[in-house]
Amino acid sequence: MAKEDYCTVNPDGSVTVALSKTYTFDGAQREKITLREPTVRDQKLFPAGASQKATADAEGKLFAHLADGVTPAQVDDLTIRDYGRLQDAFGFFLD
């Protein structure tokens, strides 16, 4: 599936990701997550770590920081498929 099939670039520069399944976070059902466009400050808040695990932890925290009402623990609960979709969405900001 092409990322354009599940990622929508919004007029404000944010990207909305359609998830592969419905999640329940804090009693609310979520089928989409919107990431706002990051700033350099956001990137500096969550620098890559010295290990692969530290880098993955920083990336997950950055995604939660950019997301609309999603915590780092909730990002950790996403399937690999949906986490990959967030990574693809982040890629839209790097063109």
Automatic annotation (TrEMBL):
Domain of life: Bacteria
InterPro entries, alphabetized: Phage_tail_E/E
Name assigned to this protein: Phage tail assembly protein
Organism: Nguyenibacter vanlangensis
